[in-house]
Amino acid sequence: QITLKESGPTLVKSTQTLTLTCTFSGFSLSTSGVGVGWVRQPPGKALEWLAFIYWNDAKRYSPSLKSRLTITKDTPRNQVVLTMTNMDPVDTATYYCTHLDDGPYDHWGQGTLVTVSS
Amino acid sequence: DIQMTQSPSTLSASIGDRVTITCRASQSISSWLAWYQQKPGKAPKLLIYKASALESGVPSRFSGSGSGTVFTLTISSLQPDDFATYYCQQYYSLWTFGQGTEVEIK
């Protein structure tokens, strides 16, 4: 059974750096074709893809946010970390981590709401 | 970047209605399209992948079709549990979501 859970601060201030951790179970990030991604959703708005990391450490970033994002993995600890720099109130959103196995996002974490104060 | 446009943004329907949501891609994405259902306060749930493949455990009243740039999600007979927001997502080149379609009670 695949599970993912996001953790990190619920409140950050403008200009600060956000660090979120996705801790997962039920799969290994050393398996070919597997990856973990991050998606966010501002309150009442649509889903937005942010970043993705594959089993082979290949990384992909949203072109519009690429300069602010870094995604890394810790395979033995079954964790993926997302950092986003220079946070702004418009970055207030629920942040989800997701699993992919050679296809779409088939498993999602419960999400974590991050509020950015000015 | 590939843009995804859903229509309508909101859909009012009754129990038992046949419901169709359309998703258009700004360029051809072959069949690399997924549909998700999201209920308030919950994470999205995968319904359809590769445009028409039904995810395990998803009721057969859900179906997907299309290829290239135009895709549809159809619910053959709307049930109470189906009132939610639906998103399409392309995974041909990176990942992009549509803006969502809210299916509400008429």
Structure description:
The complex is a heterodimer of chains A (118) and B (106). Chain A has 118 residues and is mainly beta. Chain A is built from no helices and eleven strands. Chain A has strands at 3-7, 11-13, 18-25, 34-41, 48-54, 59-61, 69-74, 79-84, 93-101, 105-108, 112-117. In chain A, strands 2, 4, 5, 6, 9, 10 and 11 form a seven-stranded mixed beta sheet that branches. A four-stranded antiparallel beta sheet of chain A has the order 1-3-8-7, with no helix packed on it. The N and C termini of chain A lie far apart (40 Å). The model of chain A has no long low-confidence stretch (mean pLDDT 96). Chain B has 106 residues and is mainly β. In chain B, 0% of the residues lie in helices and 50% in strands. Chain B has no helices and eleven strands. Chain B has strands at residues 4-7, 10-13, 19-25, 33-38, 45-49, 53-54, 62-67, 70-75, 85-90, 96-97, 101-105. The radius of gyration of chain B is 13 Å and the shape is globular. Chain B starts with a strand and ends with a strand. The model of chain B has no long low-confidence stretch (mean pLDDT 97). The A-B interface holds A 37, 39, 46-49, 52, 60, 62-63, 96, 103-106, 108-111 and B 1, 34, 36, 38, 43-46, 49-50, 55, 87, 89, 91, 94-100.
